[in-house]
Amino acid sequence: MDTITWLSDERIIFRTMSDSKIRVRFAPSPTGGLHLGGVRTVLFNYLFARQHHGKFILRIEDTDQSRYVPGAEDYIWRCLQWCGLLPDEGPHVGGPFGPYRQSERKNIYQTYAHQLVEQGQAYYAFDTPEELEAKRREQPNFQYDVHSRWQMKNSLTLPAQQVKDLLQQGYPYVIRIRMPENTTLRMHDLIRGEVEFQTEQVDDKVLLKADGMPTYHLAVVVDDYLMQISHVFRGEEWLPSTPVHLLLWEYLFGKQHMPQWAHLPLILRPDGHGKLSKRDGDRLGFPVYAMDWTDPFTGETTRGFREMGFLPEAFVNMLALLGWNDGSGQEIFTLEELVERFSIERIHKAGARFDFEKAKWFNHEWIKRLPASHFAPEVKKIFAQHQIPIPQDNQFLQVLELVKERCNLLTDFVAQAGFFFQPPATYDRAAIEKKWNPQMKACFEAWMATLTDLVPWNATTLEQSLQEVATRHGLKKNDCLLPLRIMLVGGKFGPPVFQIAERLGKAETRQRIQRALQHF
Ligand code: GLU
User: Nearest-CA neighbor of 35 among 344, 227, 253, 266?
Assistant: First the structure.
């Protein structure tokens, strides 16, 4: 058995190249919403590039026309903007290695595919889709590989003259890689260590399709080479394709130019069983995509973290900790801190479980930490969607500051702060049913009267005055708190009730009590 090894002394993290030669890329296919695992790949690429003063590249891998979804590329770009993880080079910003959309580079790849055929490392395959289908029906696990290729219609099995004729007649063909027989491929992965692949288990992947377009496998290697990519950080789901990439690197460009590989751990479902999918999110009621994604074909919208009320700071922070930590126990990191602390050595091999409650905890911590002015514009948008009137900035910010400790999501401000700007539409009468009686009503009526002259108007004076009036009516002040809250906000929520009254101001507080007393 042959062994090809890509393990050598040069396989150390930083090789001998200087930091400025560090070039990494995020290479999404624009096929739909951007999964949080995809954003984590962006993040790790970004952190590594920033840390080493290298370049982070966005490359759009859109050669598979059958999977192309209009709007998906623009959506990916907006997600990166929202997260603050913008590339140095890419279709929207340009750069010296463009174009950065593979569909605009399609002429580049054919030459390489034909070069591989000439070198005997790939071959023409003339099997029609119907023939392949028939084969699959006959053999459900059919794989076009080292064994089966000898029974198929290709340039390895047909006489040379017939191959020539078919090519001349313009007979449709694909180019497939010729996987070596009985060979073990070994490579060093920066996260997983030494990884082995048996070539016989990998099929002879199509490199160039009948329409002349490359498949992902060919395009990714050619572009990583032409764009001088030094490190490939990508999801673990790409590991099974890696043997094909290793061979293409060797055949086309030589091992010495090959980037270093780092396959990131999967993001798992909360129960730890299997990769987290959009379907799991739908089923369990949490987002999986970075931002809302509307499928242009079905019109169906899938909720994103952003629209669910996440701050980009929290989203990015949470993602960094899915499969990585700095060993100190610290959990809250700014992007700058992450750039400083990130290290490949501390990325785990094992899959990282996604925990939505923990994700909300990160958001809560960030809402607490950031000044309200930072997220007020987003909360205003949410208020507008709920038809909540938005007051002047100053008042708005003060209210957000007052209640932010109670919010996990930006959307929580609707319930926690909306009532400051509009009187309650309904009252949770059931909450006070047991305590409410004519004596209490009389107490509130009396308090209303005293409030006209209350100076200064603040939580302390309000509390004192209710205390006095309640005592005069033979009641306990504390028994009056919930009824007061229901009068002011409609339900059992919000910050301490006298603080609410202080902020509402005298006129509004009195009006709300008066209005409620008519209902109670
Ligand atoms: N185009 C692949 C994707 O959709 C990129 C995989 C890679 O980074 O090599 O994720």
Answer: 266
pLDDT of residue 19 exceeding 80, the answer is no
- From 23, 24, 25, 29, the mutation candidate for ligand 1 (largest count of ligand atoms within 8 A of CB) is 29
Domain-embedded: residue 101: no
* Residues 394 and 446 occupy one common structural domain: no
Do 364 and 375 belong to one domain?
A: no
User: How far is 99 from 89, CA to CA, in rounded Å?
Assistant: 10
Whether 169 is covered by a domain: the verdict is yes
Q: What is the pLDDT of residues 293-343, one digit of tens each?
A: 999 999 999 999 999 999 999 999 999 999 999 999 999 999 999 999 999
46 within a domain of the structure (yes/no): yes
Name the active-site residue from 106, 135, 255, 278.
278
CA of 237 to the centre of ligand 1 (A): 9
DSSP 219-249: HHHHHHHHTT--EEEEEGGGGGGHHHHHHHH
Q: Atom of ligand 1 at shortest distance to CA of 29?
A: 4
134 with 156, same domain: the answer is: yes
- CATH classification of the domain holding 189: 3.90.800.10
Active-site annotation holds for 380: no
Average pLDDT, the chain: 94
Domain span at residue 331? 278-368
Measure 29 CA to ligand 1 centroid, in angstroms.
7
> Looking at the predicted structure, is the pLDDT value of residue 122 above 90?
yes
* SS3 call for 281: helix
DSSP element (H, E) containing 208: strand 206-208
In this structure, the answer to whether residues 126 and 51 fall within a common structural domain is no
Say what the pLDDT of residue 314 is.
98
Number of independent structural domains in the chain: 5
Encoded amino acid at 227, one letter? M
DSSP per residue, 183-219: EEEEEEETTTEEEEEEGGGS---EEE-TTSPBPHHHH
> For residue 58, what pLDDT is reported?
98
Pocket residue to mutate for ligand 1, from 42, 58, 59, 216, most atoms within 8 A of Cβ: 216
Residue nearest to atom 5 of ligand 1 (CA): 27
What digits encode the pLDDT tens for the residues 370-416? 999 999 999 999 999 999 998 888 989 999 999 999 999 999 999 99
- Element spanning 263, H or E: strand 260-264
* Total-model pTM: 0.91
